[in-house]
Give the backbone structure.
Amino acid sequence: MICFAAIAPHPPVIVPGIGKKHDLELVSQTIEAMEKLRENLEKANPDVILIISPHAPFEPWSFGINSAKILEGSLLDFGLEKTFKFENDLALAEKILNASLKAGIDAHFYAGFLDHGALVPLYYLAKNIKAELIHLSFSFMDFQVHYDYGKIIGNICAPDPQRIAIIASGDLSHRLVPGAPAGYSPQGKIFDKKIIELLGQIKVEEILNLDREFVGEAGECGLRSFIILLGILKSKYNFRLLSYEGPFGVGYLTARLI
């Protein structure tokens, strides 16, 4: 059964030891929201955490499913000597792969390390949890295909006797202010406001039909993760906004859906 679902940002700067004291103060709302999510997740007591990351190894026309027996990674590239290890729920991963291929949606196994898109949320959320992990990527395929892929995952997870938590990792626009990582665009703030509004109003069809030029201009890296999550939940959720801020020019959204 699906016992928990959330959207989480993944900026390494929110991790103590990477972000300096001043940085952590600027993202205090996000940190507080992630701690709240952690408390909620611990109460949900999952057996498995399924995380969708924009920075997992990527193929444009196929969905990646990490098949490494032990899912591990570190934040050493960001200056923090901290490693993470999780058992992979390979039986569940194989069910997702086979069901996707049977439905005509291309997916593949690969053996790789956990990326920062997974590790930053897990740093907060899995501090006190001994759950197994599923590590997924998205693709460049159409938004509708991502939603359909999510529905397949949901069809596998919903009747499973294990307690499964879903985390969609992703940041919103990287173009909120002059000097932002992807440069400035006035569409950035408009995009972030629109996404939060549509998620809150459960207007999934409008999200799937967002203008691709508008999405591209925003410079986001989370929308496809969110769409897979919406498919997993089959658009049935209760959106609770925990925080949104963008002090470094990137929109950080933290929200719980189940």
The mean pLDDT is 97. The first strand starts at residue 2 and ends at 8. The chain is about 40% helix and 20% strand. Strands lie at 2-8, 48-52, 63-66, 70-74, 83-87, 107-110, 132-136, 164-169, 240-245, 252-256.
